[in-house]
Every structure is written in structure tokens, then in C-alpha cells.
Amino acid sequence: MMNNTLKNQACKASSGTVITGKWHKQSYRILKPLGYGANGVVYLASSTSGLVALKLNDNSMSITSEVNVLKHFSKVQGSSLGPSLLDVDDWHRSELRMTVPFYAMEYVKGENFLHFVANRGEEWSGILCSQLLLDLDRLHQEGWVFGDLKPDNLLVTGPPPRIRWLDVGGVTIQGRSIKEFTEFFDRGYWGLGSRVAEPSYDLFAVAMIMINAAYPKRFSKGNDGPQQIKQMITTHSALRKYQDVLLGAIEGKYTKALDMRRDLVISMSKASVTAPPKKRNIQTKTQTSTNTRNQQRTVKKTKEKKGTLETLLILLFLFLAYILYIYGQLI
């Protein structure tokens, strides 16, 4: 059995390290780490075919499970569930006298979910999560649950903005126990359900992702976890407009991703219609000239038109996405 020292070193690779597969002889030069998890490390690496994401794991059973998930995803017609699988091999580490299994996958280049929402506006949290729910519906129909669903495992690519999954290490067959989880997004941690892999487990996590977008630093669990989450939703202006949807997901009332997505889209539509106009800045004649006031009015009107157009485009995008999905289901 591998001792703990070797186990800790097995997946470590410094920048510039060249990893060559034992069987396929493909070489990868490590550039930098992309992420760390319970089951290995993901690195950005260069290869003869371009940039790839390389995952090293000292547990061959875990690697096999993740590879099988990626292979299965690639067979789902009309879907982009997870990155594409490129190579699976072993790396012989002569200095450690051991072999480390790894796989290479598509390098998904994009912006972190939370950063994107912070930079583009809070309304994008709902838009991106509506996309996420479509992907989750496809995943659930295939008999899987994502499990460790969190912003760290999501990237926004584009244009046009499109949400993509990264790490599939937590993907679990429905009915089994969740393999990996992160406390803030885990309903068991908050005392709001079990860790059985079922669609409602993922939908709870989607709600917590939207809450995380409103509270980027997150918050620690208090004495009454369920009540605490409800209070965080009802006291935040960006979350109140989705209150019924978020509370429904938190309380486990949704068992299908499409049902949650439908209600989320309706909430976004209502919010865009009922949003109050922004207050105008009042200036006296002594504070500004007539020309300046005219310029300000022009700029304000331009911004209002732009805001209305963006809202209409967002609603049109959501409507078209829904129509395309329904059409895909029919054929």
C-alpha cells in the first residue's frame, strides 16, 4: 500500500514538468495548476494539439469512474455536458518508483461564474442558472446527479455567454450516496435533506449558487441553518425577486430541473417588467448650464434605451433557448 508521503507527492507536478504517457506516448508540459480536489489535481498543460486540462489522481478507480462519465457525456446527443475527453494513460514517476494514472481533457477557457456575474450585473445570475438547469435536466434524464455543484466548477464562455462544467469528479449515479460535496452547497450540511444522489440535491445547489452570487464571501452556518438561509434570501434585494423559486429549491419542492427553470424564467420576466425606474439627479441652474443638462438628458435616455434593449434581448434569449429545448425533446 502507498504510504501517505508518496500519496501526497503523487499528483504534484511543477511548471515545466513533461508528462509522457506510458502507453500512448503523448507528452504534456505542465504550465500551472487549475484546481485541487479530494480526488487529484487539474493542471493546464501544453501538447502537440494545443492547450489541455490534465488531471492526475493516485486513485485509479476514481480516474476510471470520471473517464467513464466523460465518455458517457460525449454520447449524449445535442449536449455539451462537461469537457471533451482526449486521452487516458499512466505516468511513470521514476523518482517515486510509482505510476500515476491521468487523463487529458478539453481546456475550457472562460471566466469564473462569480466574477462574471459581479462584472456584468446581478441579472446574469438568473440567466446563467437557467442555462445550467437545462444542462442538469439532460444529466438527470441520463440517470446521473452532478453532486459537487458549485461556482468553482462552472465557467462562462462566449460570446454569447454560455455556462460550462469543469470537474466531473462528483458526478454520481442516481440513488447512490454523493461522492464529493462542498459544505456551503450541500443540503445535508444545512440540515435540509440527505446526501442521496437525486435531482433535488442538484437543484438545492443551484439555489445556493445564486445565493453565493449575492453573497460572494458566503456565510457560516448558525444555530438554525434553514431559517438562516431563508433570512438571507428575503433580506437581499437581488434575491427577493426569486424568493419563491429559491425557497422551493431549498425546501426540496422541486424534483425536476425544468420545473425550477420555468419558475425562474417567470420570476425574471416579472422582475424586468416591475423594476422601478432609476431616480433622476436634480440640479439647479446655478449648478450646471443648460447645455450640460441637455447632455445629461441625452445620456440618460440612451442608457434607458440600452437597458430596455438588454432586458428584451435577455428575455428573447431565454424564450429561444426554451423553444429549442422543447423542439429537441420532440425530435
Task: Characterize the structure shown.
- The chain has helices at residues 4-9, 60-74, 113-120, 123-141, 199-214, 225-234, 237-240, 243-250, 257-274, 290-330; strands spanning 18-20, 27-37, 40-47, 50-56, 85-93, 98-106, 111-112, 144-145, 154-157, 162-165, 172-173.
- It is α+β, with helices and mostly antiparallel strands.
- The chain folds into two domains: 4-106, Phosphorylase Kinase, domain 1, CATH 3.30.200.20; 111-279, Transferase(Phosphotransferase), domain 1 (Orthogonal Bundle).
- It has a six-stranded antiparallel β-sheet with strand order 1-2-3-4-6-5, covered by helices on one side. Strands 7-9-10 form a three-stranded antiparallel β-sheet. The chain has a two-stranded antiparallel ribbon with strand order 8-11.
- Residues 1-6 and 280-289 have low confidence and may be disordered.
Percent helix = 40-55%
Give the neighbour order of strands across the main sheet.
Answer: 1-2-3-4-6-5
Distance between the termini: 52 Å
CATH superfamily of the largest domain: Transferase(Phosphotransferase) domain 1
Estimate what percentage of residues fall within beta strands: 15-25%
Order of helices and strands: HEEEEHEEEHHEEEEHHHHHH
Radius of gyration: 23 Å
Shape: globular
Please give the domain count. 2
CATH class of the largest domain reads: Mainly Alpha
Q: What do we call the CATH topology of the largest domain? A: Transferase(Phosphotransferase), domain 1
The averaged pLDDT comes out at: 85
Number of helices: 10
- Number-wise, the strands total 11
- Low-pLDDT runs of 5+ residues are 1-6, 280-289
Q: At CATH's second level, what is the architecture of the largest domain?
A: Orthogonal Bundle
Largest sheet: 6 strands, antiparallel
Find the structural class using helix and strand composition.
alpha+beta
